[in-house]
Design a protein that fits this description.
This protein is an alpha/beta fold. The protein is built from 17 helices and 23 strands. The N terminus is likely disordered.
Length: about 525
């Protein structure tokens, strides 16, 4: 739905120098370190300042020393305003604690951090990014030895230790980078070649090359640029054009989102507008994009315009089942808020379906153990067993291009799946709220909802309370869960009946939960 504000909002260029100063000299007390689904994030200044980076790095150093973790820690970041500075600060702290560091001299995508860990060249990573958030935001995430996002137990330790160092920064140890390099504690490495070479095992680039489909890719000003360049060169993809190489920490060249903010979100029609126009004009058949740290994907096609992540995941899952010959006992993994069409695709092919809480960290064990044909979430994240236990937007774009090259337009392929398995009607509504309402939803348990017997004319089959409340109906479901970082309640709903039925579910579900 087009925002009523669309076309009336004006874009304001962020004051880069002011934000840089706030990073070093925040005005007032800084926020406590708090890890969400993917690290600590906040607006530059009180939300995320230099002291946050230093404290988190010291906490990680302490954990590595306490747990006897050996091997270098990869420190880097994407193309955000303070990403490279955050990486350098982390390197200084780790070196100050006697730990070895890999510090790249270029922006680095999130999946490459994970790839380096699972390849054995790094023991863990600290990654300066706030994903697709507005350019005023900054963050820092930690990936441990399994390569995926850190679990709750580990992030709780990081939070505890880091907040101790926020209160007493004199305990943070640092070594100047020049000295650390002279002592051999900080080094760089080629981080492009190993990744794009291995990517050739997961994506059939020969199919893309032979088909010659007119394709565009847009890094959205992010860290994937050098990697798309290298992929294009290594695999001889003359049909693939990088349509923007602009990198600017203000991200001013990105169209504003529905609320007037700049977000580098490849699943939103607003920042993706230039790419959508390119395919709709007929210049390209396919266009792909990844966000600044390249952990999310987006694609647009001539026939379908912007492809919803749920639709893309269904097409990818079906294609992988058809072409990759998954082993018996494997499954498709999806998060609670992701389309149930994936369930039908997996079941029809004789494979299982794993439904996990929201957050890619819940896929890590299954990916590492080789369980997942595909692991995906409705917010445009995906990976698979045999690859990184992190979301990988570069992999997703390349796989979708392979599918389009081999089978045709992604939108038509999705329509074919809905004709075969049923058409889902899906939405997510973000409801502004406060901490009290969020805590109320968090407190709900399955046994508290015994009086909820029907919704929108359908019988309640089951209720899950592991991450908000999900209600399973006969041909539908809905989920209410509080955001971990914002004062909003997220209301997801899907039905295989009709658009009208979807609206009925939303109305009755929101009324029942008071949202």
């Amino acid at each position: 739905m087009v925002s009523p504000l669309a076309g009336t909002l004006t874009k304001e260029r962020i004051d880069v120098e002011k934000l840089r100063k706030l990073f070093w000299e925040p005005q007032g007390p800084v926020a406590a370190v708090k890890f969400g689904t993917s690290g600590h994030r906040g607006q530059l200044g009180r939300g995320f300042a230099s002291v946050h980076a230093l404290a988190i790095a010291q906490a990680v150093a302490r954990i590595h020393i306490e747990d006897g973790v050996k091997g270098p820690i990869l420190c880097g970041g994407d193309t955000r305003l303070m990403s490279s500075t955050v990486a350098q600060l982390c390197a200084e702290v780790l070196a100050g604690n006697g730990l070895s560091v890999i510090l790249p001299d270029m922006p680095l995508p999130t999946p490459v951090f994970s790839f380096e860990i699972i390849s054995g060249r790094a023991s863990a990573s600290l990654n300066g990014t706030a994903s697709h958030n507005p350019p005023q935001d900054m963050g820092l995430k930690y990936n441990p030895s399994h390569g995926g996002p850190a679990g709750s137990e580990l992030t709780s330790r990081i939070e505890k230790y880091a907040n101790e160092y926020l209160k007493n920064p004199a305990l943070i140890k640092r070594m100047p980078l020049d000295q650390a390099r002279r002592q051999g504690l900080v080094n760089t490495a080629d981080l492009i070649t190993p990744y794009i070479t291995a990517l050739g095992r997961m994506v059939n680039f020969e199919v893309i090359k032979k088909a010659g489909l007119k394709a565009a890719v847009h890094p959205l000003g992010g860290s994937s640029l050098a990697f798309y360049r290298a992929i294009k060169e290594k695999y001889g993809l003359d049909n693939l054009e990088i349509v923007s190489e602009e990198q600017d920490p203000s991200f001013y060249f990105i169209p504003i989102d529905h609320d007037g903010k700049i977000r580098m979100d490849p699943s939103s029609v607003y920042p993706m507008k230039p790419l959508i126009e390119l395919v709709q004009s007929g210049r390209y058949d396919f266009a792909g994009a990844s966000d600044p740290d390249a952990d999310r994907f987006g694609c647009a096609t001539k026939e379908g315009g912007l492809i919803a992540p749920n639709h893309a995941l269904c097409v990818v899952a079906d294609y992988l089942i058809q072409t990759r010959q998954p082993k018996e006992g494997m499954a498709v993994g999806r998060t609670l808020g992701t389309t149930a069409l994936l369930d039908r695709i997996a079941s029809a092919a004789g494979y299982g379906l794993d439904e996990v809480n929201v957050g890619f960290k819940y896929f890590v064990e299954g990916i590492v153990q080789g369980r997942y044909i595909l692991a995906g979430e409705e917010s445009a994240g995906m990976s698979m067993s045999g690859w990184t236990p992190e979301k990988d937007g570069i992999l997703a774009v390349c796989l979708l291009l392979e599918i389009a090259s081999a089978k045709g337009d992604i939108a038509k392929l999705y329509d074919g799946l809905t004709q075969k398995y049923g058409k889902p009607y899906y939405t997510r509504v973000d409801v502004p709220t406060d901490e009290a309402a969020k805590n109320k939803v968090k407190s709900f348990k399955k046994e508290d909802l015994k009086d909820l017997l029907t919704v929108a004319g359908e019988k309640v089959l089951d209720i899950r309370d592991t991450d908000g409340i999900k209600v399973y109906l006969q041909s539908s479901w809905f989920l209410v869960r509080p955001s971990g970082t914002e004062n909003i309640l997220k209301f997801y709903a899907e039905t295989f009946i009709s658009e009208e039925h979807l609206h009925q579910i939303i109305e009755e579900g929101r009324k029942y939960f008071g949202v």
